Amino acid sequence: MTEEIIRAENLTKVFNKSLVAVDHISFSVRDGEIYGFLGPNGAGKTTTINMLITVLKPTEGTASVLGYDILKQANEVRKVIGVVPQEYTADEDLTGYENVMLCADLYGIPRDIAKKRALELLELVELTEFKDKRVETYSGGMRRRLELACGLINRPKVLFLDEPTLGLDVQTRAATWDYIRRLKKEYGMTLFMTTHYLEEADALCDRIAIIDHGKIIVTGAPGELKDSLGGDIITITIKENADVTSIIKSVEKVKDVRNENGAYRIKAENGEATAPLIIEALRKKGYTVTRLSLTEPTLNEVYLEYTGRALRDTEESRTEFMAQRLHLWRARKR
Ligand SMILES: Nc1ncnc2c1ncn2[C@@H]1O[C@H](COP(=O)(O)OP(=O)(O)O)[C@@H](O)[C@H]1O
Ligand SMILES: [Mg+2]
């Protein structure tokens, strides 16, 4: 089998002949990794997933999943993948168990096998206790877990998760991350996910691609991306009124020193080890450090560096999510 589970080549989607939602992106996802698309609303994440899962036809370019071409072998692709969509799809009036069985039906899984699997999956996402309760009564986190169970009913080798924790609070989000990690660890699954939460990408993904305006800006492991910024930032203030730039510069692993309003902003590899060396070098020359702080670059800084903008966890998406749910609820009551 191929090492590259997903391979996209110049994948492009233009809507209405003018809106370039996905703009010639190429990437590959390796066996057993969690690969994440990180980007703001409207970046083209869902559109990319929809092409990979054969729901949307690319305008240009192509992709393969487990070696199957998304255009020429769409049926094969569908058989080996699982999908947990961004929008909420479970039926409120049915129980959790009935919803999973419904998903099994869609895949044509024989009833006796489906029953066994449904119970197994509900156990995996810790919904056994609630399996016979109507989804109406479920919390946001429980609904997302139910969706996860549905996405796994056909025992997929690759799972696509579109914004798996959209609209969930921080704690519920962290719990969902645990289930996702288990899929990778215990089932050796490969996961392709999207998110606009920086912490989520950082905590969960082995590699991420930052996507903006339909283009991939940069790809790498979260740690690599942070390292690419050139190390930690140490900020130092000294008691004496003197220029000690050259002393700081002479310390090994110091890459850059700038004096900003009396404080020294130092870029250094391995800040934790380098900071004491700087203090020592200054002390030897008779200077006293009065203040020191150390900042390790976060994914936030990475995002800022590469896109020139901050990625905020907007309230917008939460509102959107609630509106969607309300809409569904109204539609069902009619
Ligand atoms: N079916 C569609 N028809 C027209 N425009 C669309 C359609 N789906 C998405 N778009 C547009 O494509 C862009 C990317 O959308 P999407 O892939 O949903 O982004 P994301 O999932 O990153 O928020 C947006 O500008 C969106 O409005
Ligand atoms: Mg989306």
Overview in brief:
The protein is of the alpha/beta class and 334 residues long.
Furnish the topology, listing elements before pairings.
Elements: E1 4-15, E2 19-30, E3 34-38, H1 45-52, E4 60-65, E5 68-69, H2 74-80, E6 81-84, H3 96-106, H4 111-124, H5 140-151, E7 158-162, H6 170-187, E8 190-195, H7 198-204, E9 207-212, E10 215-220, H8 222-227, E11 232-238, H9 245-249, E12 254-260, E13 263-268, H10 271-284, E14 289-295, H11 299-307, H12 315-333
Parallel strand pairs: 3-8, 3-9, 6-7, 7-8
Antiparallel strand pairs: 1-2, 1-4, 4-5, 9-10, 11-13, 11-14, 12-13
Helix pairs in contact: 3-4, 3-5, 5-6
Characterization of this structure:
- This protein has 334 residues and is α/β, with parallel strands linked by helices.
- The radius of gyration is 24 Å and the shape is elongated.
- Strand 12 (254-260) and strand 13 form a beta hairpin.
- The chain has 12 helices and 14 strands.
- It has a 6-stranded mixed β-sheet, with helices on both faces. A 4-stranded antiparallel β-sheet has the order 2-1-4-5, covered by helices on one side. The protein has a 4-stranded antiparallel β-sheet with strand order 12-13-11-14.
- It has 2 domains: 4-226, Rossmann fold (3-Layer(aba) Sandwich), CATH 3.40.50.300; 230-295, Alpha-Beta Plaits, CATH 3.30.70.
- It has helices at residues 45-52, 74-80, 96-106, 111-124, 140-151, 170-187, 198-204, 222-227, 245-249, 271-284, 299-307, 315-333; strands at 4-15, 19-30, 34-38, 60-65, 68-69, 81-84, 158-162, 190-195, 207-212, 215-220, 232-238, 254-260, 263-268, 289-295.
- Bound molecules: adenosine-5'-diphosphate and magnesium ion.
- Adenosine-5'-diphosphate is lined by residues 15-16, 19, 21, 39, 41-47.
